[in-house]
Automatic annotation (TrEMBL):
UniProt-recorded Gene Ontology molecular function terms: ATP binding; galactokinase activity
Organism: Pyrocoelia pectoralis
Record keywords, A-Z: ATP-binding, Kinase, Nucleotide-binding, Transferase
Record bears the keyword Kinase: yes
Domain GHMP kinase C-terminal: 361-434
Protein's UniProt keywords contain RNA-binding: no
Name under which the protein is recorded: N-acetylgalactosamine kinase
Length: 460
């Protein structure tokens, strides 16, 4: 039962222990010699459609998963933050909460650095009159990592939420979502706000259409008989460990600036492709036509872009690139912008189809949109992987449509399957995909899912 109504703040409920939370409790008491005062749960998410467009300002359609990050928390001594993890492969960590650094080494961030991102983001907005307290945290995570299911963003969000509760700082779900959307930039990831928005704003039983600037969301009721099955490709990529993700972000930014310059708009005011569309006051079909007319398909060199914008390459690096993309010498602007505008249209059609799901063929339409999305991500955005493509290919005869979900370059695919075909589809993947790769036990690698609720605090 909720002790606090869902009035814009994260709900607070009484803790009813499960086997997993009991294991977390044992880990906490063994490490800190005391019991936790509260627990925090933040779910992972699967994005049904709308990939790589949130950071361009366009709407997305995710839903929260049952898989989540669960924290046990108590106030500690002084200003020390102490972290431990149920999984012994993650080493313990502690620091002074008033004095820490977030560093991204060459092999990618450590698990505790994601937690520190959330702590820092919340402390940055904490009123000065509130005294900063340290706290103790034990972490249990069951979201598959580097799978495109938002495990890192869930940990960042859980850290921010626990920091706010430790300090009795009331902050709305929308404010937390916006705050956490910027937190991963402390380790160099230039993402959008989808993961954090669904983490805090998800409703059980509904997917969400999430729109940005300002952040707002609408419930999406999925057609009867629609089941989404998630399958791990057995390949992983930490998007903070490479320049691939940020390269796509800056390619979209530069594409927007080049089109703006050609259309007589002050390109210094344009940061996203949505900014560009708003400035031009035209529809998505017109934006697609402008990409085809203005941006050539061959890659642009850094010098060519600087010439087009009438700036130096040094200014280009300063204003449009990120620290880990300054070394890149060529950019595919046509392909990236074309994907974004076409994907934004697919999200619109997905939403419209769900609103009219009584119409015959709604499931077929949703599946087709998902398949088109994957092809675009593979061919135009170039963020797929051969094993993801294989998952999508063998899904054709057993699902209505499938696509990669998350950043890509590995991770998971999501398929739309009718309820009567779920078992057949999963069995097919076990035989034709996982066993072919030498995996006899694929439990946890492929599973059906339904929309779950967003973040929650549990008290003892």
């Amino acid at each position: 039962m909720d002790m606090q109504s869902d009035d814009g703040f994260v709900p607070i409920s009484k803790m009813n222990h499960t086997n997993r939370s009991k294991q977390l409790l044992e880990c906490f008491t063994a490490k800190f010699q005391q019991e936790p005062v509260f627990y925090v749960r933040v779910p992972g998410r699967v994005n049904l459609i709308g990939e790589h467009i949130d950071y361009c300002g366009y709407s997305v359609c995710p839903m929260a998963l049952e898989q989540d990050i669960l924290l046990a928390v108590s106030t500690g001594d002084g200003t020390m933050l102490k972290l431990t993890n149920v999984d012994p492969s993650y080493t313990d960590y502690e620091c002074d909460i008033k004095n820490f650094e977030i560093c991204n080494g060459g092999d990618g961030p450590k698990w505790h650095q994601y937690f520190l991102c959330g702590v820092k983001g919340l402390l940055d907005v904490l009123p000065q009159e509130i005294s900063i307290n340290g706290f103790n945290v034990a972490v249990s995570g069951i979201i598959p990592q580097s799978a495109g299911l938002s495990s890192s963003s869930a940990l960042v969000s859980a850290a921010a939420l626990s920091t706010s509760h430790v300090h009795n700082f009331n902050i709305s779900k929308e404010e937390l979502a916006n705050l956490c959307a910027g937190c991963e930039r402390y380790i160099g990831t230039q993402g959008g706000g989808m993961d954090q928005a669904i983490a805090f704003l998800a409703s059980e039983g509904c997917a969400k259409l999430i729109e940005f600037t300002p952040l707002r969301c609408k419930d999406i009721s999925l057609p009867l008989g629609a089941v989404f099955v998630i399958a791990h490709s057995l390949t992983r990529l930490n998007k903070a460990a490479t320049a691939d993700f940020n390269c796509r972000v800056v390619e979209c930014r530069i594409a927007a600036q080049l089109i703006a310059k050609r259309q007589g708009i002050d390109c210094s005011t344009i940061k996203t492709l949505r900014d560009l569309q708003t400035a031009l006051n035209v529809n998505l079909h017109t934006m697609i036509a402008l990409v085809m007319k203005i941006l050539h398909e061959n890659p642009y060199t850094k010098e060519e872009i600087a010439d087009e914008l009438s700036i130096t390459t040094a200014i280009l690096e300063q204003t449009s690139l990120t620290p880990n993309t300054k070394h890149i010498e060529s950019f595919k602007l046509h392909q990236r912008a074309l994907h974004v505008f076409q994907e934004a249209l697919r999200v619109q059609k997905f939403h419209e189809t769900c609103n009219n799901f009584s119409s015959e063929g709604a499931l077929v339409t949703l599946g087709r949109l998902m398949s088109e999305s994957h092809n675009s991500l593979k061919d135009l955005y170039e963020c797929s992987h051969p094993q993801l493509d294989r998952l999508v290919e063998i899904s054709q005869n057993f699902s209505l449509g499938a696509r990669l979900t998350g950043a890509g370059w590995g991770g998971c695919a999501v398929a739309l399957v009718t309820s009567e075909n779920v078992t057949k589809y999963i069995d097919m993947l076990r035989t034709k995909f996982y066993k072919q790769l030498g995996v006899e036990n694929s439990d946890g690698l492929v599973f059906a899912t339904k929309p779950n609720a967003g973040a929650r605090i549990y008290v003892i």
